């Protein structure tokens, strides 16, 4: 069944284009019928100020920012539990600084849960060569110190989201709430028992049972539901040209080659690696059609063992994330985890001792495989009292590792805009909140467009560089982890 918001988008399209398709005309008829149906009734217990859809890093950060403003915020997440899924990411100092601006305590918890990254090194491994050539070395620790910013960190996905959740009020996050429909009551179309605000309904659980009860947000709804955002689809429908492209083709808008990404965690330092103690580095190597990352993600074995205590400390040694992007590799599937690991081993049989040690200490079950993707940024983020945040608005290639830092900056701006009149827009929810969300959109779209474009360009450069590398045969045999002719660069 089409939702009201979806139908309205189709009607707008129909009006702008008199030769609209049969399916659009059907949608217009469906919308006319839907107009007669009021938004579902909502119990008082299920009314809040702001409803956020999606409990990824963006949604959780937005919830923290808005709760610190004194708002009643709830986060609705489709997953039924927080699994230790995803492996490792790095977060830039300016991203953590955004988080710190509204929640220093949570920022400290996030830093403690990861590893501080002192340097970023980029090196080239020459097939058949004897050592890696270091192309760039960035003293990110010195830069952060001079700018009085938090450090750059590497952190596992589970520990990041646990640390963010630990800063929220109890019961903020509601699991097993997969968004179905949105009724924005402000336009007078869906006025009913729940009039005033935006009503959300949810899908029944996949394994049967009743759908969770509907929820009403007095102020606004924030769509932080990632790349294939349902909020974006429902709110902007056919106005959003990239809706269907994103769902079908991960790299469609950039016409980039297909790429597979493999991730795993291994002990830090990996057995056999030179040196001891913490790695404290993000090392990116270009080698024979691949980009290989080694990222210190700090202590603990929380993710592999499935532990899930919010913000909890974890015993054991540190960990190193080993990841590789195979540019130009068609989508691959493997019968068993062992075969996937064997594929990785075959790719890196001749490489630096550190890389070899990392892969040798990796258990087959720890390897995660994913694809690279992006999506054109939304040309509009806000409509009525519904807005977008994070990947839902600006999903970008991870070539510059900017997705989470940018989502944290969205959260800061959203909270600033909603509080700009001093009354959080609650005094006049039908006009002030809409204006605040329009301002948020105006302030965020230009910088996010620039960051997406930069990430896309970097992705293309990396893919082109790897395409020029010789295929097959002997691969890089770099001898030292640090290389000899490195050029230092400080941003
Ligand atoms: C291989 C790879 C490596 C990356 N590395 C980095 C890195 O090093 N640094 C970095 O900053 N970024 C990195 N990124 C990007 C980063 O992962 C994203 O930018 C970030 O996750 C965006 O956060 P988000 O909260 O906006 O969305 P997401 O993390 O996608 O979270 C969205 C949430 O919404 C939920 N959801 C979806 N639909 C619904 C629905 N209908 N109802 C309810 N809930 C729903 C999902 O279950 C999910 O929990 C990487 C991405 C990839 C693919």
From TrEMBL:
<feature type="domain" description="FAD-binding">
    <location>
        <begin position="48"/>
        <end position="234"/>
    </location>
</feature>
<feature type="region of interest" description="Disordered">
    <location>
        <begin position="466"/>
        <end position="491"/>
    </location>
</feature>
<protein>
    <recommendedName>
        <fullName>FAD-binding domain-containing protein</fullName>
    </recommendedName>
</protein>
<dbReference type="Pfam" id="PF01494">
    <property type="entry name" value="FAD_binding_3"/>
</dbReference>
<feature type="compositionally biased region" description="Gly residues">
    <location>
        <begin position="473"/>
        <end position="483"/>
    </location>
</feature>
<keyword id="KW-0560">Oxidoreductase</keyword>
<dbReference type="InterPro" id="IPR036188">
    <property type="entry name" value="FAD/NAD-bd_sf"/>
</dbReference>
<dbReference type="GO" id="GO:0016491">
    <property type="term" value="F:oxidoreductase activity"/>
</dbReference>
<dbReference type="GO" id="GO:0071949">
    <property type="term" value="F:FAD binding"/>
</dbReference>
<keyword id="KW-0285">Flavoprotein</keyword>
<keyword id="KW-0274">FAD</keyword>
<feature type="domain" description="FAD-binding">
    <location>
        <begin position="377"/>
        <end position="449"/>
    </location>
</feature>
<dbReference type="InterPro" id="IPR002938">
    <property type="entry name" value="FAD-bd"/>
</dbReference>
């Amino acid at each position: 069944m089409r939702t009201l918001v979806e139908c309205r988008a189709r009607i707008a399209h129909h009006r702008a284009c008199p030769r609209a398709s049969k399916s659009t005309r059907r949608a217009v008829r469906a919308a006319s019928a839907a107009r007669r149906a009021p938004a579902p009734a909502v119990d008082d217990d299920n009314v809040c100020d702001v409803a956020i859809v999606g409990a990824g890093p963006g949604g959780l950060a937005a919830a923290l920012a808005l709760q610190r403003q004194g708002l009643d915020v709830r986060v609705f997440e489709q997953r039924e539990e927080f699994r230790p899924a995803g492996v490792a990411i790095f977060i830039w100092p300016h991203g953590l600084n955004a988080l710190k601006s509204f929640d220093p305590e949570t920022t400290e918890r996030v830093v403690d849960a990861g590893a501080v990254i002192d340097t970023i090194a980029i090196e080239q491994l020459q097939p058949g060569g004897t050592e890696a050539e270091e192309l760039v070395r960035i003293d990110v620790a010195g830069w952060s110190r001079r700018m009085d910013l938090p450090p750059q960190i590497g952190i596992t996905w589970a520990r990041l989201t646990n640390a963010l959740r630990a800063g929220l009020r109890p019961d903020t996050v509601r699991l097993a709430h997969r968004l179905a429909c949105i009724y924005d009551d402000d336009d007078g179309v869906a006025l009913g028992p729940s009039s005033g605000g935006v009503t959300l309904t949810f899908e029944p659980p996949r394994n049967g049972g009743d759908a969770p009860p509907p929820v009403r947000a007095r102020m606004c709804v924030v769509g932080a539901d990632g790349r294939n955002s349902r909020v974006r689809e429902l709110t902007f429908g056919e106005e959003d040209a990239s809706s269907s492209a994103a769902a079908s083709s991960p790299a469609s808008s950039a016409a980039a080659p297909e790429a597979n990404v493999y991730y795993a965690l291994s002990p830090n330092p990996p057995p056999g690696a030179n040196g001891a103690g913490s790695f404290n580095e993000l090392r990116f190597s270009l080698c024979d059609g691949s980009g290989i990352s080694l990222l210190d993600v700090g202590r603990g074995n929380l993710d592999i063992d499935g532990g899930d205590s919010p913000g909890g400390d974890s015993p054991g040694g540190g960990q190193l994330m080993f990841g590789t992007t195979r540019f130009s590799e068609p989508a691959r599937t493997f019968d068993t985890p062992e075969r996937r690991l064997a594929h990785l081993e075959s790719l890196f049989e001749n490489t630096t001792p550190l890389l070899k040690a990392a892969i040798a200490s990796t258990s087959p079950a720890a390897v995660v495989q994913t694809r690279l993707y992006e999506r054109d940024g939304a040309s509009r983020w806000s409509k009525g009292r519904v807005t977008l945040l994070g990947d839902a608005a600006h999903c970008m290639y991870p070539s510059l590792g900017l997705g989470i830092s940018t989502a944290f900056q969205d959260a800061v701006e959203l909270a600033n805009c909603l509080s700009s009149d001093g009354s959080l827009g609650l005094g006049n929810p039908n006009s002030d909140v809409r204006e605040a969300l329009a301002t948020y959109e105006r302030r965020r779209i230009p910088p996010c467009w620039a960051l997406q474009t930069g990430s896309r360009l970097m992705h293309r450069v990396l893919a082109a560089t790897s395409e020029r590398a010789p295929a097959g045969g002997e691969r890089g045999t770099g001898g030292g982890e640090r290389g000899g002719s490195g050029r230092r660069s400080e941003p």
